[in-house]
Structure to design on (371 residues):
């Protein structure tokens, strides 16, 4: 309620200026009121900080219900930021999609941005909105009334993002990219106003990437069932060189169940040695090192993928991103999953159902032909 009120307050002030005229001034004089309408309208906003002080004081002298008081204080402490974020989002124009679908707004701030697709190699002022689902880029402008507006420019899906924390030449710069590895063609360089802002954004972007990957993996754990009468599967891509599969079944055949949970072998990364940068990778299975060259990792941890050694098939050389100093070691490739792009490897990792279903149908067909 307070967030909505704060977000709408600039509009309500403008409406009063445009349409109220002397009405509220006359009411104030007629009833001998001490405060103007503007003073009354600002009170709910001022009350937010008063609630914070009250709850902090209650925490120092109350033992019973301390957990609820902490929860209440946490909510009230978040209101100013949420209200400020909501005000900025309300000024975004030209974004044709439903903003509610983008998930919770996590951060918003101004950056200098170098776009790899721009012919002019010059940083541009952009206002960024980090949602759970996407990162939205916009340009700040002033309308005819002098009010700030944000004109939508483009967006990046958080499930396709990779992060390069250090950019040579400026400690406030970092880079975002999509694809297998960062390159000059897909790397967007951002410069924050200070190092603290940069670190906050990198931390939250990495958390969002990790949460999206875990969410996608969890959403695909439910098994699917093949139909009793398999339909013809046709591969529309001639480049694969795979012939169409005709599947015929009888009405008595039982549906086959396919579960992603049992396909840990799909959670692998590219077998070629990576060059030109490192991939951000999320750990999907715990692993305890059994040798000095190996590295212990835990589910949900973020690591950088360095190499897939040819002498150790099924293993990857990774480096930690959350430990100081960083540690390197070998881990099973089946414990990892690409966290930033929807390349063919990641599609195998998160969306193996189509391939698995195709293979299962082909197997059913061969068995039926044999009978």
């Amino acid at each position: 309620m307070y967030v909505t009120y704060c977000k709408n307050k600039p509009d309500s002030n403008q409406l009063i200026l445009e349409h109220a005229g002397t009405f509220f001034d006359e009411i104030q004089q007629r009833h001998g009121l001490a405060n103007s309408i503007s003073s009354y309208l600002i009170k709910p906003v001022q009350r937010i900080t008063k609630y914070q002080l009250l709850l902090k004081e209650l925490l120092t002298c109350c033992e019973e219900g301390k957990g609820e008081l902490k929860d209440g204080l946490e909510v009230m402490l978040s209101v100013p930021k949420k209200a400020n974020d909501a005000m900025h989002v309300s000024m975004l124009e030209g974004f044709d999609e439903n903003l509610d679908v983008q998930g919770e707004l996590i951060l918003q701030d101004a950056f200098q941005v170098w776009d790899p697709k721009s012919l002019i190699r010059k940083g541009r002022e952009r206002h960024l909105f980090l949602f759970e689902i996407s990162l939205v880029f916009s340009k700040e402008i002033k309308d005819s009334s002098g009010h700030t507006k944000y004109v939508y420019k483009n967006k990046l899906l958080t499930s396709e993002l990779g992060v390069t924390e250090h950019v040579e030449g400026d400690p406030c710069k970092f880079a975002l990219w999509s694809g297998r590895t960062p390159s000059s063609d897909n790397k967007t360089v951002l410069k924050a106003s200070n190092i603290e802002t940069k670190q906050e954004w990198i931390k939250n972007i990495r958390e969002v990437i990790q949460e999206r990957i875990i969410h996608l993996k969890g959403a695909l754990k439910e098994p699917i069932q093949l139909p009793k009468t398999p339909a013809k599967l046709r591969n529309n891509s001639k480049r694969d060189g795979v012939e169409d599969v005709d599947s015929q079944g009888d009405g008595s055949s039982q549906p086959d169940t396919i579960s992603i949970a049992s396909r840990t072998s799909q959670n692998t990364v590219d077998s070629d040695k990576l060059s030109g940068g490192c991939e951000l990778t999320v750990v999907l299975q715990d692993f305890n090192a059994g040798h000095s060259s190996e590295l212990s990792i835990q589910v949900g941890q973020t690591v950088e993928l360095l190499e897939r050694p040819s002498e150790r098939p099924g293993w990857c050389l990774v480096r930690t991103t959350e430990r100081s100093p960083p540690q390197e070691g070998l881990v099973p490739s089946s414990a990892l999953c690409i966290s930033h792009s929807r390349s063919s490897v990641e599609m195998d990792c998160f969306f193996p159902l189509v391939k698995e279903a195709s293979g299962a149908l082909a197997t059913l067909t061969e068995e039926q032909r044999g009978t």
Q: What stands out?
A: Residues 37-61 form the longest helix (25 residues). The two ends are 68 Å apart (CA to CA). The chain has a mean pLDDT of 74. The longest strand covers residues 105-114.
